[in-house]
Amino acid sequence: MAIPVLVVVLVLTAIRGVAQVAPASWRKSNITTPLAERVRLAGAALDTAIDRLRIDGYFFTNDATGITGDLYAQMALFDMATNRSKYENALGQYFKVVLQSGVNFSNSGLTHPFISDSLAFGHAAAHAYTAYGKNPTFLQYAVDSWWWGREYTLSKQAVSAGKFPGMNFTLVKICHNASMVGGTFQNTDPQNSLVEGYASGYFLVLSALLAEATADPMYLQAATESSTFIQSQLSNVQKIVQADITADANSSPCSVISDTDPTESGLMFEGLAVLASYTKNISTQNLGS
Ligand SMILES: *[C@@H]1O[C@H](CO)[C@@H](O)[C@H](O)[C@H]1NC(C)=O
Ligand SMILES: *[C@@H]1O[C@H](CO)[C@@H](O)[C@H](O)[C@H]1NC(C)=O
Ligand SMILES: *[C@@H]1O[C@H](CO)[C@@H](O)[C@H](O)[C@H]1NC(C)=O
Ligand SMILES: *[C@@H]1O[C@H](CO)[C@@H](O)[C@H](O)[C@H]1NC(C)=O
Ligand SMILES: *[C@@H]1O[C@H](CO)[C@@H](O)[C@H](O)[C@H]1NC(C)=O
Ligand SMILES: *[C@@H]1O[C@H](CO)[C@@H](O)[C@H](O)[C@H]1NC(C)=O
Question: From which residue to which does the signal peptide run (predicted)?
Answer without folding.
Answer: 1-19
